[in-house]
Amino acid sequence: MKPFDPRLLRAAPAARRPVAALGAMGAVSGAATIATAFALSAVVVAVVEDTDVTTPLVWLAALFVARAGLAAGSETVSAWAGVSVSTELRSALLRRWGSLDADTRPERGAALALATSGATTVEPYAARFLPTLVTAAVVPALAIVTLAVVDWPSALVVVLTLPLLPVFAALIGRATAESTERRWAALASLSGHFLDVVRGLPTLVAYGRARRQVETVREVSDRHRVATMETLRIAFLSSAALELLATISVAVVAVTVGLRLSTGSMLLGPALVAILLAPEAYWPVRRVGAEFHSAADGAVALDEILTHLETPSSPNAAFGSERAGIPLISASNAAFGSRRGGGQQGALEGRVRVHGVTYTYAAGSAPVLRNLDLVAGPGLTVVTGPSGAGKSTLLDLVAGLRRPSEGTVEAPAVHYVTQRPFLAAGTVHDALTIGHDVDDVQLWAALRAVGLDGVIASLPEGVWAHLGDEGFGLSAGQRQRLALARAWLSPETVLLLDEPTAHLDDESAHRLGELIAELAERRVVIAVTHRPELLEHADHHLVLGESGALEAATAPTLEPALEAALEATLDPAIEAAPEPHGETTTTHEEPS
């Protein structure tokens, strides 16, 4: 654990000015302390010698006022520095995690602890420890130089004993770092476990296993408590050791000065200055030791935060907002011609392209998707297959939430409705208009389209009624329809729907199937489902096998121009056979 990590100033530029200001104020306060020693000794000498004490008293009062002002200013700037640093680091973390895909993003519990309590613990590190470090580098040097001018034997004692404090602090700090790292690991474990318990509490209660989690939470909490007490014990012991060493050193200076003062070899004024300045030479170093322990958590959290910020962002070549490229026409893409297009050119525009994609969750495991090539144009593309075939993973790849192990994915901006849509706490209006503005006419049209207008109108506050986290206050089906209404209002040209009718009755599912078909008339809609309602409206039907390869794809009769282009590029491995009602079925063999 480094006393100062220069990466902080690069990651949080806002910290530079307040930290520099605090360091400068600490140095000025040290100089004022040295001046105070001279003024106080002058007052004492004037009283002893019965001379005019007015002038030294005025200087002493002015110096006390200046030091009080500097102390108050330091507190204000410290608060500013701490909040600025923690806010900027927290924002940088969220931006960085937002740029990562699901495979490289940290675990939720650890990320939550780091972005909340972790960023908060950096505040004392930046606001108190770093300025104290600057003061410790400046004030002892000023005190030693002044002592050398006033009384060189006292300066010699300070020069010989002062380096012992950083040595002891470094030795103790090493043990403190290990203890603090263990405590932070325990806190991250506690946060992650507590988050999982809270999220799964309804399920635990339903199965009567909630009480069993109490012991687990208690065990993790005790581990965190023990680690905290170990850190505090080391902190108290180290502070006592530094205080003892500094006290002995100051006592040596006081004894030598007192002996020389008693023999008449030293004047009262310089003796008082030496005795008053000696503690000030040790005080900044002692304060560094004290602040180090209070900021140790922040130093560990800062190191982890900066490590996360240095994690490379996911390559966005396949996920940029502008994903232009040469259209792919291959045998496995043959099922994706659009019957709504106006010829070949119309069918090749506004599509999602997946080329040679293989995806593996963990190194060494079997691929979830294998060598997948497809192009989805305007219309409704329904993806089916057994559980674990990679259907939701395919949507994640198109949305840019995951990065393919091999191959490329190209798509314009998408609107993604997951199996558990995100609905933040707030009003119904906020849930529907997140990310874009719509008027009331459009909003109620969307609610009417998904069959929620009656439900929302019956609420006392209508669209301004408040919902809890995850849409608490609505049923699972109503939350799903609210998410589809938000998709209906979204401006994106590509809609990704993961089990959009999973929580609906047959009548509601049929009605939403018609709505999704209507949306597909002007957008690219890719839907994953296990239910038959969407298949009735599908323009294209993809079947993914258990191996993650494209097993079958069905499409209606293609436009003549596109059909001619596809016939010229058909893969010999694809066998086509006419289906009833004029449909064409193509089968993609698994790679050997």
TrEMBL record:
Any single Pfam family the record assigns to this protein: ABC_tran
UniProt key word Nucleotide-binding: yes
GO biological process: cysteine transport
Subcellular location: Cell membrane
Record-annotated ABC transporter domain positions: 352-571
MF-aspect GO terms: ABC-type transporter activity; ATP binding; ATP hydrolysis activity
Protein name, as recorded: ABC transporter
